[in-house]
Amino acid sequence: MKKADCLPLLYASKSLTPGITFEIRTLESMVQYGDPAGVPVLNHNYFEIVWVTQGTGVYRIDMQQFAIRPNQIFCVRPGEIHLFESGEDLEGYVISFTRSFLGMSDIDLDMIHSGGVDQLFERCKTVSAKNESTAEMALIMECLLKEFKNLDLFRLELLRRYFKIFLIYLSRHMEEATPMTAPSRSVGLVQKFMDLLNSNFKEMRMVADYARQLAVTPNYLNESIKKATGYPASHHIRQRIALEAKRQAAYSDVCMKEIAYHLGFSDSAHFSKFFKNTTGMNFTDFKKEKFSMAC
């Protein structure tokens, strides 16, 4: 299919400038002055909040595609590939921040959301902002934009405080959309496991590897993760490797052999069998299907 027949790429995930831990921009400026032909960045290390206040279009996060509606908020975790493939008259805000920017204690994070910012973002990819609170939220965004351009003393501290208030509003909307059950004792273990998995999935393939790092037995880790998520730790390890393979296949031009090597497989045949068993389809069909969806 010709490139001209594809939906226009208006905005894709980018790397933050080295040394920058927080950035806020309007969606209009990113669409107008960004790099519309840029390639989405794989393995970025920041969280991102995209609030579309006006406009319609198509937004993709990893393998999911969303129809954009006004006052829709998208939450993107580190490593998730995200891009606008098409849109009309888009307005809104985009906040990118690293884990280190928050600079809050665990107590402060728990006040915003039980389990911290990771669990807040994990619960939901998208949520609709309620009309009764959008004015207050927009005011906070304008304060963030103003302070972000400011060079006065205590700039970062003010940015953190304004942003914390916005996260509280976001948490309220998510709670209404998907009420939380009472946290269990295994929440901390689950989060530590997921953090380890996201950082080490290429090298650590066995449940025993993670159990050793977390000072628990493999059986206990498997059962704890299964009780909290519905699937054992071994399932999450396989799925995380498969997710990375899907990202590479969908958002880059590398071949199966290169992806297999990148993910530590001894040969393409081994990788091909793993991909089919884990995803339910062979690699070539998946790559063709994802290309046709993007064009």
Give a written overview of the molecule.
The protein has helices at 27-33, 99-102, 106-112, 116-123, 131-148, 155-177, 187-200, 207-214, 218-229, 233-251, 256-262, 268-279, 283-294, and strands at residues 11-12, 22-26, 47-61, 64-68, 72-76, 82-97, 126-128. The chain has 295 residues and is an alpha+beta fold. It has two domains: 3-177, Regulatory protein AraC (Jelly Rolls), CATH 2.60.120.280; 187-294, Arc Repressor Mutant, subunit A, CATH 1.10.10.60. Helix 10 packs across helix 12. The N and C termini lie close together (7 Å). 27% of the residues are buried.
What is the total tally of β strands?
A: 7
CATH class of the largest domain: Mainly Beta
Tell me the name of the CATH homologous superfamily of the largest domain.
Answer: Regulatory protein AraC
Shape: globular
Named CATH topology of the largest domain: Jelly Rolls
- Work out the count of structural domains: 2
Which sequence of SSEs, written as H and E, runs from N to C?
EEHEEEEHHHEHHHHHHHHH
- Specify the helix fraction band: 40-55%
What average pLDDT do the residues reach?
81
Radius of gyration: 20 Å
**Beta-strand content bin:** 15-25%
Low-confidence stretches: 1-7, 109-114
Work out the helix count: 13
Structural class, by secondary structure, is alpha+beta
